[in-house]
Known about the structure:
The structure holds two protein chains of two kinds.
Chain A: H1 5-35, H2 43-58, H3 64-91, H4 97-120, E1 135-138, E2 141-144, H5 145-167, H6 169-179, H7 181-186, H8 191-216, H9 224-238, H10 243-264, H11 269-283
Antiparallel strand pairs in A: 1-2
Helix pairs in contact in A: 1-5, 1-8, 1-9, 1-10, 2-3, 2-4, 2-8, 2-9, 3-8, 5-6, 5-8, 6-8, 9-10, 9-11, 10-11
Chain B: H1 2-20, H2 25-47, H3 57-75, H4 79-101, H5 106-125, E1 136-137, H6 150-174, H7 176-186, H8 188-193, H9 198-217, H10 220-224, E2 226-227, H11 229-232, H12 235-248, H13 254-273, H14 276-293, H15 297-307
Antiparallel strand pairs in B: 1-2
Helix pairs in contact in B: 1-6, 2-6, 2-9, 2-12, 2-13, 3-4, 3-5, 3-9, 3-12, 4-5, 4-9, 6-7, 7-9, 12-13, 12-14, 12-15, 13-14
Amino acid sequence: xxxxxxxxxxxxxxxxxxxxxxxxxxxxxxxxxxxxxxxxxxxxxxxxxxxxxxxxxxxxxxxxxxxxxxxxxxxxxxxxxxxxxxxxxxxxxxxxxxxxxxxxxxxxxxxxxxxxxxxxxxxxxxxxxxxxxxxxxxxxxxxxxxxxxxxxxxxxxxxxxxxxxxxxxxxxxxxxxxxxxxxxxxxxxxxxxxxxxxxxxxxxxxxxxxxxxxxxxxxxxxxxxxxxxxxxxxxxxxxxxxxxxxxxxxxxxxxxxxxxxxxxxxxxxxxxxxxxxxxxxxxxxxxxxxx
Amino acid sequence: xxxxxxxxxxxxxxxxxxxxxxxxxxxxxxxxxxxxxxxxxxxxxxxxxxxxxxxxxxxxxxxxxxxxxxxxxxxxxxxxxxxxxxxxxxxxxxxxxxxxxxxxxxxxxxxxxxxxxxxxxxxxxxxxxxxxxxxxxxxxxxxxxxxxxxxxxxxxxxxxxxxxxxxxxxxxxxxxxxxxxxxxxxxxxxxxxxxxxxxxxxxxxxxxxxxxxxxxxxxxxxxxxxxxxxxxxxxxxxxxxxxxxxxxxxxxxxxxxxxxxxxxxxxxxxxxxxxxxxxxxxxxxxxxxxxxxxxxxxxxxxxxxxxx
Lengths: 291, 308
């Protein structure tokens, strides 16, 4: 393999674009797992579900980003219902919530995946839009426009979500629930309702992330597995619940994956996220920006 | 004593059945069910007794299959050597994952096991010698006395493996190791404070569980006479190994066995009669239903009925 500076620059540039996308797809999990402490293994599956929703709407000529936004309220309700159910069956009863909660979400992810296989088959699906398939050139490097669109959406999503969490009343309430639930209860607030709301937002974000997923490339039902690694890698590397950390961690993963991709080939790429994840768990489990 | 006699009876019955039955399909199907008995029992050592959820059964299982492939390609090693070597490597992998994550909260262990699955699979895909992404064809040797066919022998190998797994699980459950693991599951900090060597116990469970899972994978090479990464590391193994103990009941060694026999048989029937996608869906739905409605599994349901 010839190693050149041009190639490296190109890899880094792609890594930045993809990295922001990774940050955006992980940010919902950062809320659900990082802040609310729900072992939401099924989050990437919801994302893939969102991507297929976008595909369905795309057949009627709806723009992918618009369909992501259209699906978001639906997913919000789904998320609220999911958390309510999870709370009533596991969190409320307390004991043994760990094993059963994990098994529950694992089962849900599995059901979504197989449901998609039964409904759409195992073939890859993609959407049509004006910006998909075109590319812009930056000096010598050609960048696919779809990556740029996903990059922009990702930045906006991350920006607004962190703004929401730090500036608005409910956003701060969500952070408060993560920091000290009993204290919140003593203040007369209902932590379950706040968590329910937050979980709804996390799931709504998964819908938008799903739309971006299908913009970036074709999707298939089994895709959630690789994204379990990517999203958890980003969330753990960031430090649980840190929004700005999520962006940095996403960039690190994106660049690392992109460099491995150019130097060793695509077949090694899936292992990067998981390798990085194991490394973080072994060396610094509290993450880069962890408390 | 009753336990040992029933093991002998099962072995005897299987021997008689082998003499009577001429249809090889039953050995094919029985092998799969027994393989799941091993996987479910192994999963339960860590997941059921200690409360640490392993999502990566497929990593251990597939690794076992590929250790066998490697040994066949390199030395034409006999089946017993393949199984023992696979168990040793599985134990080492279990130890590695354990050392890395068992000091952290349970969920990190679970995520790490997902990671290990993808990493091992990626390495195998990129390793040409054992077939890479396209897989590798393996010639089955001649069957040896007293077995009429190789598949019949594999069936008995799986039966012995399943019995070994159950004996180990039963020993652990009734000994101080099991009590320690249960203490970890109920309250790890309290267990640590009362002098339970939590990390050592968890690592031991991880090593034994990993060894059994890889041992269960080793005969796969001979069973299918063709191994390729996607099916060897299939998520179905991970889901089934987790669903079977939870459906059967995690608190007693009989739970995983019940779950594996029931679910394994249902899977065989559904795969043959309807479709393999639907069969996987059945496992997922049953898992969620049991986790929500009957957390104690079949064993718990039975206990409740007999107490009344």
